[in-house]
Amino acid sequence: MDAPFIALRLQAVWVDARWAAHVVQTGTVLVSVGYRLAPEHPYPTPIEDCVDAIRWVHAHAQEYDWDLASIWLSGFSVGGNMVFAAAMMLHNGGLEGVNLAAIFSFYPLLDRTLSREDKYRMNPIAAEKVSTPKSWDKLFVDCYLRSNPAVDLSAKYLSPGLALDEVLREALPTRITIMTCGWDALLEEGEVFRKRLVAPGQNVGGRIVEEAAHTFDRVPSRKPSTQMDKMYSDALVQLKEKVR
């Protein structure tokens, strides 16, 4: 049986093709989830769409000869947030028989209670390397949350990095890889979360990609990127070990 690998995508499909090329080389089927986007479809709709996609894979596994024991999730940036949120939402839904074997999260946004200034103080070099204006942060948040003042930014589906240890142990798979970037404002929260997840019975991997800014692998380029290829290959070590 083939193992379905569910990729939560926010960027254009051609960007995900680079990651997909590495995934399919392991003999794995990649299912790309085009979840509905804000502001037309604000939180929590995108996460709910991701959960529905996981349920769809589970329901059609026999039809496509997929291995239900090996369902993997991957996501980048906000998608790196949503793989954790979707796993917790799926667990809360009580769907029996769904086995999430692993999560691959790249430079995830894990704590929405921190401002950009807070994150720059924790990693000052990120302020020098950022390529998006500060005003975009508010725009993205307003679109995703529809400027709802009642939303708790510390809620587990918005800030998975703040979820209770008990929730994480029960909802997340035992294999987790988190890749962070050295020049990223999200570096600290990613590293803190990875350390939180290390526990008996857990296989937690990943590393810091040095001298790399947020979404460095998403930049349009015809030139091959050794740094990007190395990050993808390192992230997939756990998957390769399982498939073989």
From TrEMBL:
Pfam families: Abhydrolase_3. It comes from the Eukaryota. The keyword Hydrolase applies. Keywords: Hydrolase. This is Alpha/beta hydrolase fold-3 domain-containing protein. Gene3D superfamilies: alpha/beta hydrolase. GO terms for molecular function: hydrolase activity. InterPro entries: AB_hydrolase_3, AB_hydrolase_fold, GDXG_lipolytic_enzyme. It comes from Friedmanniomyces endolithicus. Residues 17-216 form the Alpha/beta hydrolase fold-3 domain. The keyword Signal does not apply.
